[in-house]
Amino acid sequence: MIAEEMLANRKPWILVDKVIEWKEGDFLVAQKNITSSDFFVQGHFPQRSIYPGMLLVEGAKQSAELLLIASGYERQEFQLTELKAKFFRPILPGDAVRFQVNWVNQEKQKGNLVTVGLLDNIVVLRCNLKIL
User: Fold this and answer.
1) What is the pTM of this model?
2) Which CATH number among 3.40.50.720, 3.10.129.10, 3.60.15.10, 3.40.1080.10 corresponds to the domain 3-131?
């Protein structure tokens, strides 16, 4: 599965590098490799560059979109709303963040998704998304 073909965004705003694992309608694990050459890292706290939190949230959202699309939803069939995010530690160049997306509950065309950002199996981000 190639994320770039499935998402509405285009480079440089595709914030998922690869899909590692997925089970249709159940879960998805994607990865984003953070590099010092990413233009949005270079000016974000120049003395100690960190990956912007909003871009972590966008990577989590794009991972959720990939799960929905890979599960047979069309882009026009869903809308991700009511985003809630919590950050637990900064992400630095050289880190590889894994986004693990799981359904919390699912009804026809509705439900809630939780995306957890992991760095070396440590939770660095948690996002809750509602699907309408």
Assistant:
1) 0.89
2) 3.10.129.10
